[in-house]
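Problem statement: downstream parser choked on a complex file, so we are re-checking the raw output for the 2-phosphoglycolic acid run. The parser issue turned out to be on our end (a line-ending mismatch), but while we're here, posting the original submission so the record is complete.
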Amino acid sequence: MQDKQRRPLIIANWKMNKTIMESLQFVSDLRKKFKEININGADTVIAPPFTALKAVSDSIAGEESLALASQNIFWQEKGAFTGEVSPVMLVDAGCKYVIIGHSERRQYFAETDETVNKKINAALNYNLTPVFCVGESLQQREEETTFKVIRSQIEGGLNGLSEGAVNSVVIAYEPLWAIGTGKTATPEQAEEVHGFIRAILRETYGSGTSETVRILYGGSVTPENINNLINKPDIDGALVGGASLNVDSFVKIVSGSI
Ligand code: PGA
């Protein structure tokens, strides 16, 4: 469908949803559906809550097309950090990816560009692929500070990283006004910011990196809008919340991205 060099990547961000049983049921239904379509053209990742990570990991073992992500990480390896989960533990549970700096973490749990930067470094040190989230609020968009906000989030989050390290990062652009609202950014609005992010990568790390890094769009992605989004030159996949909770709609999004 598209001739991009970057492989499409679709991530199901379940947020604080699904018990272990519900997660396993989803994976079992998903595997059945995946047999019906050619899903080898995309990378598919599931980010269940922490409690279901190991069970989902065991149930997707051996599936090349499916990988596991956590929704958060802490940067220390171990110690007196009540309630936190370390990179070592995530690797131990079978994770390959980790979502970092989601706007809900920034908004409700006081994450900052500095903590996001520490988490990205920690993930990379343990060979976990960071899915680094950025995005502007509605007010910032209306005040026309979107580019300024995105630039400072990107520069803050990637601060101090080498070119090689940045090549291993996935970036997710998620405008806050589009998350869980049913109000998707138009493909043009999304592409404008994706292109801007790629230009920052080019000016900072060179064209090798800017052509390598996958930039996902997130915010009310559905089976109906995935196609128009992924057809844009700088949109390489999606971080999907609400529509990833249902197997049918998630499978349609994956097949629509290929
Ligand atoms: P949504 O969430 O698809 O429900 O808008 C996306 C996200 O927050 O990652």
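For whoever reads this later: Strands lie at 9-13, 43-47, 66-70, 97-100, 129-134, 170-173, 215-218, 237-240.
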